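YM 10:42: DNA-binding NarL/FixJ family response regulator sequence, as discussed on the call
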Amino acid sequence: MTIRVLVVDDQTVVRAGFVAIVDAEPDLTVVGQAGDGATAVALAADLAPDIVLMDIRMPGLDGLAATRLLTEKADLPKVLVLTTFDLDEYVYEALRAGASGFLLKDAQPQDLLNAIRIIATGEAVLAPTITRRLIQTFTQPQTPTPAPSPLLNSLTPRERQVLTLIAAGHSNAEIATTLGVTVGTTKSHVNALLTKLNARDRVQATITAYNLGLAHPRN
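YM 10:58: structure's back
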């Protein structure tokens, strides 16, 4: 199945570069381009892309607002945010808005292509440097263990293990190896966990893990 991609960036040269990289792949196709958030939202409604490559800082409707509009729809595309700086004040808010991943614009072409394919399967992608900045944004270095919350209490011991490993960036295969179970069993745990957390993907599950005190930033 071909993955349909909408490329959104206010810089024409940058946008053309992303289009060339994506269109060169047999399993990917660019169905449209936009230079601002409002155009992106309109085109997404008409073209029904699977993935939107979204710049954040654009004139008019920025990428943050556009992401929120795109992901609140029932038949929503997944959004991969491409940002110039790993310390971007909008990154965490874009996660809350529903973005499924982040990469720096200077990422290698193969990393971009891999990210598109991973997000299309329902997984999430975060550049390592962005992950570190993101964690620092919404956690304190010496955060005390929070009082048990109803959400935390609703998780089984195994689900807590799985959530902790997700927050550490482990794939399903790595989680299966760590826990000594099959990948299929791991997928079942992950799906059940996302449902309990009301999280659309592993990125939002990771945020919840930090908020619940199940994961902590590394020095």
